[in-house]
Design goal:
The radius of gyration is 23 Å and the shape is elongated. The chain has 284 residues and is mainly alpha-helical. Strand 3 and strand 4 form a beta hairpin. The protein has helices at residues 11-18, 33-48, 54-59, 67-78, 82-95, 134-141, 191-194, 196-208, 211-229, 238-250, 260-270, 272-279; strands spanning 109-112, 129-132, 169-174, 182-187. It has a two-stranded antiparallel sheet. A two-stranded antiparallel sheet has the order 3-4.
């Protein structure tokens, strides 16, 4: 889960999608000038509620879902024009190489945070477009931004500033009778007292995106495996292991404290019991 800076809405840029050089609405769009004015008014609504976007789904449904308008607004995003291509490429660069929803996979899909099936007016509104991985976008997010309780289900990388100020994500390492440790990610419930709104959203995001099993799979099958395999057949001290973890953490210093790799490494560094399995060669 990572904070990003959105590409700002540019009315001049938007007008290029809609108008020809003569100032008329493009012939392939079944839009009236009043429709365009109303769409831009909705952009203002979006900006007003950008930190509480559940409001729009709960209280301000779209008026643009009639078939002709819907098709035309979808067409703005689906256009094969160079203008549309350039806009999508600019948004793709924002997320870089990791999905901001999960931090695991490589982004490959542009997600409409408010789904265009319900809000076609935001089809090509840049603050509504987030470059994410196909798993988060296709398997988990879907078309519902709010749950049955009216709560927002997903973290917004553009506008949820609390992701950078509060550590919600924790990792617990359990070493029992088994020779292999167990790893458990969870959202710290104590955060509900310092930021109840942020906690609720992050907890929902964590649950609906199924991040607990997805993070555990990364740790159990890759991250911890690669770490311990460096020392198989070698003599190493507890202090040396901690020193190496600190070095790895240094490479993640630009990430917030809710990055799953960072959270895991901090937890591993503090778990002498787990690290001693490697020192004592009890784990292979």
């Amino acid at each position: 889960m990572r904070k990003l800076t959105p590409k700002d809405y540019d009315e001049t840029e938007f007008n290029k999608f809609v108008f020809t050089q003569t100032g008329n609405v493009r012939s392939h769009l079944n839009l009236m000038t009043t429709d365009i004015t109303n769409v831009k008014s909705r952009f203002t609504n979006y900006q007003s509620y950008k930190k509480t976007l559940e409001y729009l789904e709960n209280s301000s449904p779209s008026i643009f879902q009639t078939s002709n308008l819907n098709d035309s607004l979808f067409g703005l995003y689906d256009s094969a024009s160079q203008d549309t291509k350039n806009l999508k490429e600019a948004i793709q660069k924002i997320s870089e190489i990791k999905c901001p929803y999960c931090g695991i996979d490589t982004p490959s899909h542009l997600d409409h945070f408010l789904p265009r099936s319900k809000f076609p007016e935001f089809s090509i509104f840049t603050p509504n477009l987030i470059y994410v991985c196909s798993i988060c976008n296709s398997k988990y997010k879907g078309d519902d931004v709010v749950n049955v309780a009216g709560e927002r289900k997903f973290f917004n990388p553009y506008f949820d500033d609390f992701i950078d100020s509060i550590q919600f994500l924790k990792c617990e390492i359990l070493v029992g009778t088994s020779t292999y440790p167990e790893f458990r990610f969870y959202i710290d419930s104590s955060c509900s007292t310092t930021n109840g709104y942020g906690y609720k959203i992050i907890k929902n995001h964590f649950d609906y995106m199924e991040l607990q099993p997805r993070y555990m799979e990364q740790i159990a099958k890759e991250k911890f495996v690669r770490f311990k395999n460096r020392y198989i057949g070698k003599d190493v001290s507890l202090d040396k292991l901690k020193e190496n973890i600190e070095y790895e953490l240094g490479g993640l210093s630009d990430l917030n404290d809710n990055n799953w790799e960072k959270v895991f490494l901090e937890s591993l560094k503090d778990s002498d019991e787990c690290l001693m399995l490697i020192v004592d060669k009890k784990i292979t």
